[in-house]
From TrEMBL:
The keyword Cell membrane does not apply. SUPFAM superfamilies: Metallo-dependent phosphatases. Residues 16-206 form the Calcineurin-like phosphoesterase domain. CDD domains: MPP_GpdQ. This is 3',5'-cyclic-AMP phosphodiesterase. Keywords: Hydrolase, Iron, Metal-binding. GO terms for molecular function: cyclic-nucleotide phosphodiesterase activity; metal ion binding. The lineage of its organism: Bacteria, Pseudomonadati, Pseudomonadota, Gammaproteobacteria, sulfur-oxidizing symbionts.
Amino acid sequence: MSADTNTFQNLPEGSLKVLQLTDCHLYADTSRCLLGMNTQETLNLVSAMALEQLGTPDMILATGDLVHDASETGYRRLRKQFARFGAPTFCLPGNHDIPEIMARLLNQDGISTIPSTQQGNWSLIFLDSTIPKKPGGHLDESQLKLLEDELQKHPDKHTLVCMHHHPIPVNSAWMDSMALNNPEPLFELLAKHKQVKGILCGHIHQEFEHNYHNLLLLGSPSTCIQFIAGQDKFGLADNPPGYRWLALLPDGEIRSGVELLPEMPEGLEFNSSGY
Ligand SMILES: [Fe+2]
């Protein structure tokens, strides 16, 4: 799609326009880089591109690894940056985040860490799939209960479930070793609630789209570094930073796509062996 095309054009009335920004990996110090890439600068560029291409969305979903060093300074700055979009913003934690600090600092200025929201014909549920100090993911009993309660509360709403970790393999052994480690109870639960249309993730730093048991599974590029898809070992891709847009239609259809910066920012350390 070209930059002058508005992805949110020609949508039926009642559609929700959603912007996903994920894996921003900010630091307290704005000059710090992740594998040679200045993550604050790339978030600034991706945010500006999203606003220009999409206008103000109906909501923003920030799906984890928001602040790489989990610093209070980083979260405060992120909150102010998100607030400038002027759209309700929902944040969930990734493995680099600390949920308690997020909850303390990301619940003002239109930003929140609440577990769900209902808008129009849709319900969006935000799960915490993190395991303290571990890169992989898990949905503990409290998160599975929260999910079940939300699904039972809103059976007539089309539903998008959001979490940081990917629940099915993405054909990349090193990344799949850090996937959600208990997808079975998740999919068992979702199979009982037919209103669920899709699952949206962060974590994998690459575009991913797959239909699985009538669910649309979406993974997304990071606002900073991207990983090589389909490769068993860690590797940095030369894809620029980007975002995903989603249009949630009133009949339950999900339209979605990703947009990347037109140019690769300089400095990425392609020979890095891990992060
Ligand atoms: Fe990440």
